[in-house]
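Structure tokens please, single chain.
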Amino acid sequence: MRLVIVGAGEVGYHIASRLSRERHDVTVIDQSQPLIERLQEELDVLAYRGHGASAATLEQAGIAQADMLIAVTNSDEVNLVSCLLAREYGVGKRIARINDPDFQRSRLVEAGRSIGIDLLINPSQAVAEEIWHLIKSPGAEEAADFLAGEVKLLSFLVQPTAPIAHQRLRDFALRVEPSQSFLIVAIQRERTTIIPTGNTVIEPHDHLLVIGKADRLHEHMHWFGVTPRPTRKVLIIGGGRVGLQVAQRLESDPTDYHVKLLERHAAQCQVLAERLAHTLVLHGDATDVKVLQEEGIADMDAVVVVTNDEGTNLIAALLAKTHGARSVMTLIQRPDLVPLVAALGIDAAISPRLITAGSILRYLRRGEVLSVFTSIHTEAETLEMVAAPRSKVVGRPLHKLKLPAGIIIGAVAHGDDIVIPGGDTVIEAHDRVIVFALPEVVTQAEKWFSG
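Here you go.
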């Protein structure tokens, strides 16, 4: 596939990195010379310096031969014009990032739909949805649902005292009853992503991606050093577009959450109070320990830190954790700071740019792929796919498939029957299957399941 990406920031860079590793032809446009040089030095892509809304620049980048254009600059107007020009050049698929906080009523969104943009992505909306999933999965660093919510994928940081620490997976499986109720499908150890085998040994501070039946997975979280408790009391720090959308999402949830929202600007507090019916809006500075203590930080089940300032987020999250909040998650704009979050003892990092990139990758995988999850801790992608009747995976036990290295099957759904598979599991035509794959073998994984 030939793709043109407009915007070489963290979103554009991440998408270009993933797709180039899958051997797609990727061209990136940006006005920043340092960003262009970074792409040329680090990725196998073509990179051009220029304006993404310029027909001349797009022509230089080969827009007439492109199958898809992805516009992810910080300017909504540039993104829309890029897509409009791409339509004139006959580009089949067009994707645009729209940052307008009032996404549902935005004139830019209306304009994007009117010119036939295939996918409009709003980062704050995507982030709010991710935070909601984490609140619903206490103790996890990341969370995603598959197979209509019947299967859950969670990410855990292995605590030094966890029963699974220092265990060989083959030996550990003998201690779990039933042995196939969950599966560890990927491990991030420092900068290395590992697709585990029976001989893999789990080390303290590993980040594990774990898949299991949604109604049973919580029973096994103690193996990773996690003791989940229901979340009821939630404090949101930061009343910007993300904080507002998280509060609205929690208000619409049937769970009886008790939500407080702490915002430092009085005028914004008034706006929030008018738009939120069941959230207690408070005026105060979240970096002031006294303020946090007055609002009962030690009694909070979850603290969500989503201000627009990176430094404030880290300080407020650290203060919340050290003063008794059970679970703390924070917004991190720079992906390179994500490892720092775990090192500070904060429970979860939320990267808007990586979440946005993941939403776009999910769209790109459409076809036999029903859903995609991209972890911020590991390089592995999680794909929900349908086994085509004539595909290579159908009709043989998993242990006889000889899947390429870097691919593992995490769950299989045959009708209403869902199993966490073993070596004797047989995939049948039209089964829905959860597959984990490293970036360099994602394309191979898709071919194994296609007809």
